[in-house]
Design brief:
about 375 residues, Sulfite Oxidase, Chain A, domain 2, six-stranded mixed sheet, five-stranded mixed sheet, 5 helices, globular
Length: about 375
């Protein structure tokens, strides 16, 4: 069986299998962009296999591999270690996949695979240093308790990360979200939190941390999460989150199409923007589908790894509009107007567009 993603035929509709994935893995309603921190029940969720049943009494975290002093910890021992808290925007690497043409077959995300939460746990770096990586250590593999098959390969969910990235101060082994113990769907009892990286890096139901003396070559790094233009051509790994801005859809929606209806007059457009590469430096808004752009106002910079709020004043006159927003970060990365296509459907940060009908204001 091929391990490459399948591309939908030109007239192929969303399948029952894709609808099943969409039912299991819920997105984030865009009106929830109003919250600085996303309520847990509104945060996006992707579960690759099944949510495992984990007994906290028998659960252990094992840190080993290419180290001098392997470490095994109970949950209460992890929770007794020094604590740190970071507010972090997560985004699934497949966000926007269903908007690509031709469409890669997988979880059919539109724009809502996003959320910002406050994560509390213990810094990973201190535990790695306690275990003592040996000379020649290069990568660290993180193993979750979830198990399944993917494109014909049976596996535990395992992701690898460079040792230098693991030693960054902001990387956590988290056991709380928004001040509450992790719920089962968010990785109870312990998960990895790597701010700035796409969601596939944030391994849930963590059981093992293995230091490696060679680059990690597991399925999730080498096959599943790659930028690949052709089936057998060269590829690049999916890593940090590309810049993206989203707008709270203004007015009120049509039930089926979600097209918006707005009364004429002054309208404040608002939303959030983020990037895993550098802080957001600019957000621009277009009311004519991307023909012309004007700068939005940005709230002061907050926590480094959390999204940034923006606002824009629009004098809405009666007519049909397509509202668009794009972000740029301080490293010079700019959100594209056209799709950045790849056959895995990863990192599609193409601009959001919202059809809006402005109706005359009531007399």
């Amino acid at each position: 069986m091929s391990t490459n993603a399948r591309i939908a035929d030109p007239d192929e509709v969303i399948s029952f299998e894709e609808l099943g994935l969409a039912a299991r893995n819920h997105g984030f309603p865009l009106e929830a962009l109003r919250y600085d921190v996303t309520p847990v029940g509104l945060h996006y969720l992707l579960t690759h296999y099944d949510i495992p049943a984990v007994d906290p009494g028998s659960w252990r975290l094992r840190i080993g591999g290419h180290v001098d002093s392997p470490v095994t910890l109970r949950l209460d021992e992890v929770r007794s270690l020094p604590r740190a808290t970071h507010t972090v925007t997560f985004e699934c690497a497949g966000n926007g996949r269903a908007r690509l043409s031709p469409r890669p077959i997988s979880q059919p995300w539109l724009d809502g695979a996003v959320g910002t939460a406050t994560w509390t746990g213990t810094p990973l770096a201190a535990l790695l240093r306690e275990a003592g990586p040996r000379a020649g250590a290069v990568d660290v593999a993180f193993t979750g308790a979830d198990h399944g098959t993917e494109r014909g390969v049976e596996q535990d969910y395992v992701r690898g990360l460079a040792l230098d990235d693991c030693l960054r101060d902001e990387v956590l082994l988290a056991y709380e979200i928004n001040g509450q113990p992790l719920p089962p769907q968010h990785g109870f009892p312990l998960r990895l939190v790597v701010p700035g990286w796409y969601g596939m890096t944030q391994v849930k139901w963590l059981t093992e941390v293995t230091v490696l003396d060679a680059p990690f070559t597991g399925f999730q790094n080498e096959i599943a999460y790659r930028y690949r233009e052709t089936e057998d051509g060269p590829s690049e790994p999916v890593t940090r989150i590309k810049p993206r801005a989203l707008m709270i859809p203004p007015g009120f929606p049509d039930f089926m199409t979600r097209d918006r209806i707005v009364d004429a007059g002054p309208v404040t457009l608002e939303g959030r923007a983020w990037s895993g590469w550098a802080p957001i430096a600019q957000v621009e808004v277009s009311v004519d589908g991307g023909e012309t752009w004007k700068a939005a106002d940005l709230d002061p910079l907050g926590e480094r790894w959390a999204w940034r709020r923006w606002t824009f004043g629009w004098d809405a006159e009666p007519g049909e509009y397509r509202l668009t927003v794009r972000a740029a970060d301080a490293a010079g990365n700019v959100q594209p107007v056209d799709q950045p296509w790849n056959r895995q459907g990863m990192g599609n940060n193409m601009v959001q567009q919202i059809p809006v009908t402005v109706r005359p204001a009531a007399s």
